[in-house]
Design a protein that fits this description.
single chain; mainly alpha
Length: 66
């Protein structure tokens, strides 16, 4: 649903939905990846950079990062 909001609806609403998802499941790299892709389509470099900083600050095992 968050992806559809980014593509067809309000991107801020999609962002809010993704924030809730990654707050609930912070160690799911697949969700972060989708969120990063959706944010990259918006063209806001500062927001995307902040999001990358948050992802890279997470402590993950090498197995999870694959």
């Amino acid at each position: 649903f968050a992806q559809l909001e980014y593509k067809l609806g309000d991107s801020e609403r999609g962002k809010t939905i993704f924030e809730g998802i990654v707050d609930s499941h912070p160690k799911r790299w697949d969700l972060w990846s989708i969120y990063l892709d959706m944010e990259a389509t918006q063209g806001d470099i500062a927001s995307l950079r902040n999001l990358f900083d948050r992802v890279l600050a997470l402590k993950m095992t090498s197995h999870k990062a694959k």
